[in-house]
Request: fold
Amino acid sequence: MTLQLASSANLALVLLPEIVLSVAAMVVLLASVRIQKAEADATDRARSLGGLALAGLLAAAVANGWLHWVSPEGEPGMITLDAFGLFANWVFLLGAALTILVSFPYVARQGLQPGEFYALILLATVGMMIMAGTTNLILLFLALETMSIAAYVLTAFHRGERKSAEAGIKYFILGAFSSAFLLYGIALVWGGAGTVDLREIAATVEAGAGFNGLVLAGMGLLGVGFAFKVGAAPFHMWTPDVYEGAPSPSTAFMAAAVKAASFAAFLRVFTEAFSSLYESWYPVVWWMAALTMVVANLIALTQSNVKRMLAYSSLAHGGYLLVGVASANEIATASILFYLLVYTIMTLGAFGVLMIVSEHGESRFQVEDYAGFGASQPLLGVLFTIFLLSLAGFPGTGGFMGKIFLLQGAAESHLWTLAVILALTTVVSYYYYLRVAWYVWMRPAPAGALAAWAPVSVTAVLMGCAGVLIFLGIFPSGLLNGALTAAHGLWLRGLDAGLSGLVR
Amino acid sequence: MTEFHPLLPGLIPLLPLLGFLGNGMLALVAGVRGAAELRAGAGAGKEKLGELAPPPWMRGLPSWIGPGAIGAAFLLTLMNFVGMARSGLEAPAIVRYWDWISTGGIRIEAALQLDQLSMIMMLVITGVGLLIHVFSVGYMREDPGYARYFAYLNLFVFFMLVLVMGASFPLMFVGWEGVGLCSYLLIGFWFEDREKADAGKKAFIVNRIGDFGFLVAIFLLFTSLGAVDYAGVFGAAPELLAYGGSTATAITLFLLIGAAGKSAQIPLYVWLPDAMAGPTPVSALIHAATMVTAGVYLVVRASVLFALAPAGSATVAAIGAATALFAATIALQQYDIKKVLAYSTVSQLGFMFMGVGAGAYVAGVFHLVTHAFFKGLLFLGAGAVIHSMHHALHATHKDWDAQDMRNMGGLRHKMPVTWVTMGIATLAIAGIWPFAGFFSKDEIVWYAGAARTGGYGALFTALWGVALVAAVLTAIYMTRLMVMTFYGSNRTGEREAEHLHEAPLVMTIPLSILAVLSLFGGWLNVPASLQESVFGGFGLLPMSDWLERWLEPVTELAQEIHLSHAGGYATASPLGGGAVLWAGIATGVALVTVGLTFRSVSKRGIRPASESGAPVGVVRGLLYHKWYVDELYDRVFVRPLLGASRIAWRWVDQILIDGSVNAVGSVFKALGWFGSLFQTGQVTTYAFVLTLGALAVLGALLL
Reply:
């Protein structure tokens, strides 16, 4: 069906997934009050509220799926309806759903308030979806803050734990700091170009009508803001501390969905508004990508704490994705989308197993604690190995295909050095991923070690994740074509806006 | 001549994959049971542990599924082989399944390619693979991880078949990585031993370096030719790549890095000797017969590219020759029976590289096939010996090394079948007529001497000399191995010697079949020059030059390029004399060497390992310690990398936090920012770095 964007009622339809999810978040909060009164035990509470949150995500997914069939007509306002945004929404919804699914036992066992926890996840997801869909810098800022504030709270959610509180405050202060950069960047761009709409900025820059210096400076500060959010070196230093201190489900959610949303917004802004300034910004992104890949992979080598290792690994993947940003062509954009989806699945899978080994708490993160895991839990051991292999980029897994597509994007733009750094740092990454797998399979369990346990539902979800990863390793075309369509739309819009742009 | 219709080619790799799934399920079930019983037994005390013996089907099923899957794949391969042989296939038969990677610029299909080369490889993989699977039934019988073992082994065969059957470089890469993974799993199979698990890791990491080269080569192909499937690449290469041009050379050199990693060539050979930590049948299958020859397969497969890059080809040959000699010297001074065979494998792979580097692709493949026979046999024989030694030492609880040849001796009386079959293999590898190795090695050495590729004539003459020396060394270390193991008096100990026994039938039958193949395998390709002489039975041999003709459709194009640019091969060796004369000299020298070594080693008073010290003398010590290459790599590569990692961590994430907190903090205080508000230091430091980074970004954009 076609949707007249001129009518405001129809604009609400464009925002349907966001609206559904916001309502769901409120329902979860309300229900939690009732359930609290009913004095059900912690597991039941977590289950029923989590189920409610999942139902909300499912409804939002249906709405998102429906939007695929809708063709918009007329000038969009601050929110646009395009394949890029919809694809990104799938990643966020999946990230949120998997987070909730694998963290049931954790939430119950740690006595976290499930109502607030799940509602925050849903609200953060709303922020992400708007981030990916908006074409207006002010709305982008609001959406980013919606997501970030929820993330700060999720980080500090373990109120009783010193580490969690410390991580929360750290994240909050530095996040506020980086938001200031972002906001200042928006102000400068507005000052230079006279508009905060991405396509109007693009047109102004292309026409050479604005104050170029201001726009450049604003673009730089915007870049800094995004670099902070995606954890690009040298703006990454908060990540390991925050990721380690936050409750594991929050870490998983941040490493996957928050990062994905930041990349989506990064891509949209720099593709739609600034692609004619590519020659100016690409060296900066180039260096950030190279630095991130090298630093994150090198440091991950020395980590013996698996949670911290996964934090650095998530930084390293951010570095790979930055290669795609620096490549700035359709294939690269598609490969980022593809990679984000795969990355979300494998990261959440790995964190799901991490939570099982750490007995749904904040202990047993050392690599030695994984000794004998394969013998006591062979199935989970196999799944964990698949996640690790996929993270390392082993052929036959989605992680491999993602890296291949990123490399292909880099090759299209002739970024050879970056491609080589990507391939070489991947070699290094095998070491620290396999080290964990090695403990899982090749070290006997120490005497007196408790057997880790996982509910059937979590195991089933993890099996599904591993299955999808292998499927995408063998049949990546379907998903990739979807990503290509999305990327094509984004680039086309960049060109439509009066850009001669970079036809690569 | 009928048209060739591949018969269910997809089923050939699929069968081992199904075997993997079946055995994998069994292994998982066994694992779950074991874990449950351990948990139950932990409370009940030790008497429960005796009841942990798995039910009989846990043994029976893998014994049938594992070898059965490979056997079925072998039969199917044979049927396809017959079909192909009847049809006189010219262009490769490509069977397409689905679109694998398709993006704007490129489309790669999941497709299998059946041609003469992949067929030979498939026959070796499934044929020798089947024998080794059967052998494993006996060898691994008592291992608690029996099902897991067959699961890994089947998975390995699956990936190996993907490697050789894939119709494009990326698909070959999938198999390439997959066999690496299985190799890692199987080397670390007995992981209770930390050293063994480390060996697996080392193999995987070193292989990754090679794989990186392979991957870069694929991307170079993609950007220079716009294709990565074989048909596309070899169709476009002669037109788009200049002969001897930098692109062709770069591609071949990166391919060489990949090939050197997988086939254990200098400088990436270090993982293979350590890989001997795995079960011996694994060493036979993966580290002798199949996986390690993948590099040779790669060069032959990409022969068109290598023919276009004479510098790349010469590098391949030079590395091969250097490896052949270098590894052979190390093999002279090893006491571990498997280590000798490991270095021997490295050395023989060097021979194959020399052959394919000299443009003698058929000779390389020929040696690959015969080597699979005799080296597979040698490893299985060594496995039977170790099996027996292990039992004997175990019976009396003697903690001697079951693999140290100084603890063996005189085993020919105890293990006659093993002795005879290994003897045949030794004569074959030493290059004595009429055994298989004679023909294949002779062909390689001959072509190395006769090659004149693109102005590298002098180099090839030198390589020819190296090859002759390495061939003599081969005869020496193999004879030494045979004498120390099977001759003289037994040194295992009196009580232990009673427990030494011949291997069961399930192990000796594969040995015997491989012995027959080591004896007659050379007939596959008796070169025309030898055919009419005494070496070819005065023309009586039925299959002379068969492999040459069989592989012609695959190597034709490369040979054409080679002939038109480099002008083919000399008809006389660098020192004069024709092929027949030099074949005579070679086998004569080998015989004399074997005889002399036999006498000198027999006379040497060998003492058991516990009574002998480290070798005396500089040269012996150097060889015994493998030229200290592991130590060198550790200093030059491993430690600096880990050091850099630690420095990166300390500097970027620690010193900046701890060390410079005060300095940076005071800067912030001076600025009146929130340095005074938050005493934590870390946050201020992070914010400081953030600001610096932002300034750097702005500077880069605005200046």
Summary: The radius of gyration of chain B is 28 Å.
